[in-house]
Amino acid sequence: MPKRVDHEQRRGEIADAAWRLIAEHGPDAVTLRDVSAALGVAHGAPAHYFAGRAAIVECAFRRALDDLDARVARRAAGLSGVAALHVFCEEVTAHTGTPFARVAASGPGPAAVLAGVTARWRTRLAARFDEGRRAGEVVAPAPDGVLVEQLLALLHGVQALAEPGSGGAATSPVPGGAGAAPGEAVAAFLAGLGGGAADAGVVGRTPPRTVGRGAGLVAGGADGSAGDGPTEDGPTEDGSAACRAVGAASGRVTGAAAAGTPRGEADGFLAFTDVALARTGERLPGTDRAAMALVLNLHRIASSLVYDLESTVHRPAGWSWSAFRLLFTLWVAGGQEAGRAAELCGMSRAAVSSLANTLAAGELVRRTPAAGDRRTVHLSLTDAGTDRLVAAFGTHNRRESEWAALLGADDLAALNTLLVRLARAAHRADWINRRT
User: Fold this and answer.
1) What is the pLDDT of residue 383?
2) Would you report the helix, strand and coil content of the chain in percent, each value rounded to 5?
3) Structural element, H or E, at residue 369
4) What is the structure's pLDDT at 405?
5) Share of the chain above pLDDT 90, in %
6) Which residue in 123, 271, 322, 365 has a CA-CA distance of 20 to 30 Å to 191?
C-alpha cells in the first residue's frame, strides 16, 4: 500500500528548504534542482506541490515572515509600548539571511507578501507607539505615523548591512572594526523616543549639532555630496550610534571634519538613503548619485508632509488629503468641469469622479451636467463646502507655517525658488510623462 503523504506538510518542508537556500545565497539560488538536492528527493518531486520556483520562493517568504510574527507574539505577550517595540526590533534585526527587500524584489509574489506583512506591521507598530505615548514612554514630537515609517525604513536599512549567511549581523566594512553594530542604530532610535541621551539620537526632530575635530564624514551623504568635506545637510560620523551605523553602511569613512560643522540628526530613512546611495554606487558604477538623492529625498519629505497634514488637519476635518485638494481647487478656481478639476488637482479623472461622489453625498460639492454637454459633469462648492474649506484652511496654513519654520527665512525662500524652477523645467520637458 503506497505511503500516504501529508500534502501541506510536504509543501512546508519544501518551502523551508528553499528558505535555507535563500538565507545563505539569496533568492536567485532557489532552483528546483537545488531544493530537491537539499531535501534528498528526486529532481521533479517539488513540482508535484508547487507550480514552479517562483511559487516556492513566495511560499518560503510567507512562512518565514509568519514565523517571525509568531516569535514576536510569543515574546511580547503581556508587553506593550516601547517594551513590545524592542521585541519586534530584536526579532527583525536577528533575522538570518537575505534582507526582506531583496527577496521582495525577486518577483511579484514575494513583493505582494512583503506589502501585506508591512501593512500588518504598520498597524501593530502604530498601536505600540500609541501605548508608549499614553504611558509617557514616547515623547518624540513627530507624529506616530512618521515614527512608524522611520522605524520600518531603519530596520530595512539595518538588514541591508547583513550579508547573506551572516546570521543577521553586519560585518564592519572599516578596518579595525570601526562602526557600530546594526542593533545599536535601532537601540539609538528607540532610546530617542523617550528623549534619551544625546548619543542615542533624538527622534523626530533635527536640532543643530557640532562635529568634534577628527570625526570622520560619511562618504556620500543624503544630500548627494561626494562625502569629501563637511556638509550641512548630510549625516556625519559624530559619535551617535545611528550615524556610526550609516558610516558602516556606506563602507567608506573619509578624513577629519572641521570642528563646529552644523548638522541634523539622521532619521531612519536618511540612514537608509545613505546605504542606498553607497551600495548602488558600489554595485552599479556610473550611477548618478546626486539625481538619485534628489528623488529619494523629495519623495521622503513629500510623503512625510502629506501624512502629517492629513493626520493632524484633514482626517479630523472629516476628509482625506485628496478631498482637500479637490475642495481647495474648486475654491480657488471656481466651478470646473470634472476633467479640468482633475488636471488642476494633479489627480486622475477617475479619482476626482470618486471623490466628487463622496463629497456630493456630504453636501460639500455640487455635481451638475455641464452646459452644452450633459455627459460632462460640472463640479462646484456648495455653501457648506465653502464654509468647511475656509475653516479647515486656517488650521492647514498654521501647520504649513510650522513646517516652514524648520528652515530660516533665507533657506525657505531659496528652496521655494528652486522648487519652482524644477517644476517649470519639468513642465517644459517633453519627455516627462504627465497625468492627463
Assistant:
1) 94
2) 60, 5, 35
3) strand 365-370
4) 92
5) 19
6) 123
